[in-house]
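Troubleshooting: if your tokenizer reports a length mismatch, compare your output against this known-good record of 535 residues.
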Amino acid sequence: MKKTFKRAGVAVLSMAMLLSMGAVGAMTASAAPDDTTYSVTITDAKKFGYSYSKIADLDENGITYTVASGWDGAVKVESNYLTQKSAATGTEAKFSENTTADQKKKLADALAGVSASFTAVANDTITGLTPGYYVFKSSSSGAQNILVEVKGDIVAGQLRAKANEVTIDKTITSITDANTSEAAASLVQSGGKNGHVSVGSTVQYNITTAFPYYDTENVTAATNITDFTITDIPEAGLTITPNDVVSITAGGTALVKDTDYTVVSASDAKIKATDNTENKNYFEGKAEDTYKVAGTGVKITFTDSTVINKRGAEVVVTLNALVNANASVNSDTNRNCATVEYNNDYFTGGQPDEPVNPTTGDPNEPDEPTDHESSYADVYCTLFTVNKKDNSNQSLKGAVFALYKGTDTTGSPIATLGSTDSTSADYTDTFVFSGLNVGTYTLVEQSTPNSSYVKADNVTFEVKDDTFAGSYTFTNKADNSAIANGSLDIVNISGQSLPGTGGMGTVLFTVGGAAIVLLAGALFVVYMRKRKVEE
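Known-good structure output:
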């Protein structure tokens, strides 16, 4: 992802890290630390909530470093480099004057997490710092941690708080109205990246990103910067409307709709591809049986003044999505994609001023003025199919089935399917309960095709997904047998009507020379003997 942070005269993390650590000769171990004091100015240090801690002391001759109090377990210093310690591995990579900026940032992040004594920054200019190495950590997720070497005053304009790169993360925070016997907390897994739902469930998401850190010396609220937008368009099984945007905060402060941002419906599926290729439609080129058509989503556009005034602030969008009747079932995911787009020239707000494309090096190919990131969260559901059969294993139409969550069948069912009316569109031999969640369910036959059939026993079954990725299994709890692919045959056994008044009764079957007869509700055994007819 391209980021344009280059600008003449602006020093962004351009500190001479780890230079001159043991550059001239050897020092005696008795050399005392240098107690000269200097001031360091970091533009916007206070705004981003920085605090600092000294890692290493420089001696009075300006040559040798020693680890500062409280940092013995985290780092060690040698002749020309600083080494981060790890309790697990002893020592990790060395960070010297040849270390890349990215590696230095990683070291700053690691050291900012050390349990040591830190002093809060009261103003952008910090005074009374003696020579050595310092780590500055930010309490804001919008700013980067900084490692700096102090060997003299660092004046305003030389060091600036640098915003983190703009990223986006979409996670599921809760699933409600899930029509399942499972606890709500168990429906969201994988750090909020996967969830189990039912048709009718409400899925709440958090989208976390940050405003770019635009330089207010060159960008004002009146400048026409590229809109900072968040677009969230799900697949067809999920629906999001502008009213489903619950809240938006920036830096922990609630933003005001139609003042700080606007929300409109978005259903054109203009989402970036999973490989983050520019100007790609997320659904473009995807097989229909893998990624369904776009559902209804939202596009959130933030006002320029809000982005400027809240530059670098963490942005959190909370919104809901409804699982509708188009939800994909079984292993097919219901994907929800959130994309952030913004101008990546943080300093001018306009076209980047680089002479060549930073990726390709082609001077005839301008740098893309906008950038984007995407994040996904997936929910899954399944279906359960009931096939109605008679005792000859033939399809049998005309029944009514109800499905209950759990084992209690006294309340209202989740769904009721079927009809005994042959003229009804619901008169069928196949009953599909779609969009089911994991959990335990009980199937009840409420009506048989006609009075000559005996109602089938209730069936309690369990739906599980041990992988939490749509790999469902179905188990009949009566004998713990598997229900293959969630498809169950329910057989009705047919009896015969009682005879009219004065009738002899009905012969059910014969065993040897005995006939089993149903007469007035009682069984009688009638012995029949063969009679020899004599001529």
